[in-house]
Structures are given as C-alpha cells and as structure tokens.
Amino acid sequence: MLSRMLKCEGQLAGSRRVSMLMKQMGISALYRKPNTSKRHPVYPYLLRNLSITRSNHVLAADITYIPMRRGFAYLFAVIDWASRRVLSWRLSNTLTTDFCMEAVQEAINRHGKPTTFNTDQGCQFTSLDFTGLLKENGIQISMDGKGFWRDNVFVERLWRSVKYEEVYL
C-alpha cells in the first residue's frame, strides 16, 4: 500500500524496498495476527519397530482436502493398520474437530477399542477434545514426527488412491 502511495506522489519504491525500510524503522502493519503460540501437547510416535499382527491393534487417521468449484471439502478417514481397511470416514466443508471425533467414535463403536491411535500433528488431532476422546477410551496416542509423512504412510496411500481414482479424473 505504501509503495502505491509513494508511486502516486512521484517516488519510485517497490514493495520490497518499502518492506525493508519499514523493518529498519520498526514499523509494522496494524492487523490482527494469528495466535499460534498456544500449542497443545504433541505425543511421541509409538509405532517405530512395533510388530502389528492383528486387526484393531493400531488405527490411523488423517484429513485431506478435495478441491471443489468453490472452496474445499475435507475428507477424514480412520483405517486399520493391519488390514488397511477404512473403518469410518466423514466429509465436511469446515476443518473443525467435531466431524473427526464422530468418525473415531463410530470406528470404536463398530470395531472396538484399539490399543494405539496414530495421527499427524494437525490442530484437530492435538486438540483437547480429540485427545480427550482417545484418553477416555484408554487408547494410547501416537503422533507422526513433524514433516514425516512416511509415519502415516497407509493413510497417505489411501489419499493418493482416492484422489487419482475418484477426484482427479
């Protein structure tokens, strides 16, 4: 905005130069910034070197987005690591925690309580509501390392199949 104002006054200054000068003078834009400093606890990854030999031992979940004409739809799925079977899923137009918790509760009701539940470090999965649901049911919480997609490779493979076979036709 400042670079455009200066241009109207006959001064030539690009947006990068204006940004640099603002930093040097300690000037910043007045707008509300996101408060990302309040983080919920992140749990360790418990599946390394774990032998998974039976169904309902470890469940994993993740969210992916599906592009729509206007905005996105968000698909959440719970899968069994041993059988690679989708146990429950939900589709939503918002990234809230409630539709994720509904799918997890459905998987528990239909297939019983697993020993361990693995997710990534998304805000839905680190929320007190989501972790509270797992703790109430006596389920160990496992979370992927930051940026380690391979820790939840079976769900990521599911997303690849869904998107390339059903979405990106």
* Quaternary structure of the protein: single chain
Which architecture of the largest domain does the CATH hierarchy give at level 2?
2-Layer Sandwich
Uncertain residue segments: none
Order of strands, main sheet, comes to 3-2-1-4-5
* Count of separate structural domains: 2
Integer-rounded radius of gyration: 22 Å
- CATH topology name of the largest domain, in short, is Nucleotidyltransferase, domain 5
Provide a count of the helices.
6
- Give the overall shape: elongated
So, the CATH homologous superfamily of the largest domain? Ribonuclease H-like superfamily/Ribonuclease H
Helix percent reads 25-40%
**What amount of the residues lies in strands?**
15-25%
CATH class of the largest domain: Alpha Beta
Q: How many individual β-strands?
A: 5
Highlighted features:
five-stranded mixed β-sheet; alpha/beta; 5 strands; 6 helices; 2 domains; elongated; 169 residues; single chain; Nucleotidyltransferase, domain 5
